[in-house]
Amino acid sequence: MANFNKVILLGNLTRDPELRVTPKGTSVCQFGMAVNRVYRSGDETQEETTFVDLEAWGKQAEIISKYVSKGNPLFIEGRLKFDSWESKEGEKRSKLKVIVENMQLMGSRGDNNGGGQGSSNYAPAQRESGSSASSSQAPASSGDIEEDVPF
Predict the structure, then answer these.
(1) In whole angstroms, what is the distance from residue 76 CA to residue 127 CA?
(2) In whole angstroms, what separates CA 4 from the centre of its chain?
(3) How far is CA 38 from the centre of its chain?
(4) What is the DSSP letter of 151?
(5) The model's pTM
């Protein structure tokens, strides 16, 4: 059976990106994004906001950390990842997040995110199926993260 895991988001960051480095030297950046949806319900216009947790690895993590801050718009292409862990109190916890695979900075230089005339992009070289992961891709497991609980 075929599987497909692709997420495309355009929204604004809800908090400043948090950059960390794994013991093996790989950069990992975690941040949140708000994505709005406006729709009509009868004669009224409704707005719905979805909050999404995101994680970027390698060079993308460094770029996001350097050029994007709370409130800035960002276009993301990625994949869903389900994390589960046990809290210190022994409760089972879980979270669905998006792992960034490609991104595009959306602001202008005046927005302090280095976007240039309206936009700029950074997309790593696409890898073929079965090839090894580049440094900008997430590792197969998060076992090399400094903490055993998602940040």
Answers:
(1) 18
(2) 18
(3) 23
(4) -
(5) 0.68
